[in-house]
Amino acid sequence: MMTRDQQQKRKAFHTCQCSSCQCHPYGGLAKQHHAINRVLVTLNEKHRRRFAGLLALERGRGGIQAVATITGLSRNTIRRGREEVRRTDRLNTVRHAGAGRQAVEKKARTF
Questions:
Q1: pTM of the complete model
Q2: 103 occurs within a structural domain
Q3: Cα separations (Å) of 3 from 14, 45, 65?
Q4: What angle do CA 72, 77, 82 make, to 5 degrees?
Q5: Which domain holds residue 54?
């Protein structure tokens, strides 16, 4: 069961401030921006940053500013997420069993 604070935090999300949403709050573009903000509320910080970065990549030139207006996230946050999405394939490698540094107990000598 969720506490009252969790319910309020979950329900609150950013309202898009773009001119299209301000002029036509029930238009198709406004519905799309509303859906984006509903998804962002459910994500943790890391995934929110990467999702916003992906949206900025899809939009191309001017994408960071557009996504910042839609989501209310900082441009630096979106820029960082965009870079994480670009280099994700190299960072998310899974180590093989036994790979990596050995445990300290294994290296200790017995006398």
A1: 0.66
A2: no
A3: 21, 21, 35
A4: 110
A5: 11-87
